Amino acid sequence: MTGTRHDLPDDWARRPLTDPDLFEAVVDLAVFEALRAAGGVALLLCHADGRLVQPVMVESVNSASPPHEAEARLTTILGEIAASGVPAVVMAIARPGAPSATERDRELRQAFDRVCRACGLRLLGVALAVPGCVTVLEAASDSASDSDAA
Predict the structure, then answer these.
(1) Which one of 47, 55, 120, 141 has the minimum C-beta count within 10 Å?
(2) Which pLDDT value is given to residue 147?
(3) Which pTM does this prediction carry?
(4) What is the CA 23 to chain-centroid distance, rounded?
């Protein structure tokens, strides 16, 4: 993790989450340890310029949700969010366990991509938030040099 909520600069709220110096630290701030312990998804709703508007926690989508069910729930939720005028989102998978990505994490990452495209939302980045740690979760085709968020 490159930064924690304790490392955030005073002006962090005026800067876009696409700033790699802020991404993990803002996710660390927004995704409470309780959600990480229980499991769920955090949606960090953003302005068009990438600044945070509002975090939303979704406990009904977690590592126990079958992939098709998780994707259907996210489609409903993100469709309503997009209809309300929110143009962009950062998504975080919150779960207990090790900070290395699992097959399920990668499946959820792919579902996030599909759902955001279908809903017309710009996906600014995806993170994995486990107790005490946040890491960027790249798309399968991303490399560290061309990701939006890192």
Answers:
(1) 141
(2) 40
(3) 0.86
(4) 10
